[in-house]
Amino acid sequence: MPEGDTVYATARKLTEAMAGVPLVVGELRHPRLSTVDLSGRTLLKAVSVGKHLFLRFDGELSFHCHLGMDGSWRFYAGRPRIGHRVRAVLATPQRFALGTSLVEMVLVSTGDEHKLVDHLGPDLLDPDWSPAKEAEAVRRLTAKPERELGQTLLDQMVMAGVGNVYKSELCFLLGVSPWSSVSDVDAEKAVRLARKLLLFNALRPIRNTTGSRRRDLWVYGQNRHGCARCGGPVLVGHQDDRITYYCPRCQPGPTTS
C-alpha cells in the first residue's frame, strides 16, 4: 500500500531513471489528458509531498498524480507490454517508465503546484523539516484532543504521509488502542516517531517498523501470526472505512469506535 515513504522512493527512482534526457514518448492515458504529448520535454526532477507526486518538466510544467490504493511506477530497459491499468507512459532512448493505476492526474504550472497540496499538514519527509514544522504538526494533531488517534493519524491535513500501515504501527509503538483519544498520547512523541519511521523506510526495499530481520511489522497484517512483541493475538477492526490491526495486550484502551 503506497504511503509517504513509497511515494518519496518513487520520486527518487523517477529522477534517477528519467531525468535529464528528452522524452521520446510522453503519453497520459486519461480522458482529460488524452491530447497531451510530453515527448520532447525533459524531466528535471520528481518530488513527493506526502502521498502526492509531482514530475517537473522543462518549460515550468508539472504532472501531478497520486498512487491511490495500489498505484505504482515501474521501469524497463525495453518497451514493455502496456496493460489496461497503465495511465502514464514515459520513455527516453534508454528506458521506459509506466505509471499504473494512477489517480488525481493533472497538469499544472510548476509555480502552481502548491495549490494542489496547500491543504495538507506538514510533510513528514520534507527535506526542509524544521522545529517550526514539527510544532505545526503537533498543533494540528492536538487540535481535536477528543478525536480517535487512528482516525487523526490518517488525516493528511494533520500531517502528510501516514497511511493505514503506519497508522496501525504507530498506535502499537505508542502503546495505545487506535480508538484511544489523541489526548491519551504524547503528541510530540507521536509526530517524531511518525517522521522517524518514514525516514527509516524511505529508501528501504521492504518496509520495516520492528528493526528486526525476523518480523518486519508489529501488528499490521499480523493477525495470522500474532503480535511480534508478546506473541498474543492480533485483532482486526474497522475505523471509519479502514481496517485496523492491534494487539489488545500491548495496546490497552477502547476497541470499538
UniProtKB/TrEMBL annotation:
Which UniProt keywords are present, listed alphabetically?
DNA damage, DNA repair, DNA-binding, Endonuclease, Glycosidase, Hydrolase, Lyase, Metal-binding, Multifunctional enzyme, Nuclease, Zinc, Zinc-finger
Which InterPro entries does this one have?
A: FPG_cat, FPG_N, H2TH_FPG, Nei2_N, Ribosomal_uS13-like_H2TH, Znf_DNA_glyclase/AP_lyase
FPG-type domain location is 218-252
Q: Name one GO molecular function term.
A: zinc ion binding
Q: Does the keyword Manganese apply?
A: no
Protein EC: 4.2.99.18
Checking Gene3D superfamilies in the record gives: 1.10.8.50, MutM-like, N-terminal
Question: What family does the database annotate?
Answer: Belongs to the FPG family.
Protein name (record): DNA-(apurinic or apyrimidinic site) lyase
Source species: Actinophytocola oryzae
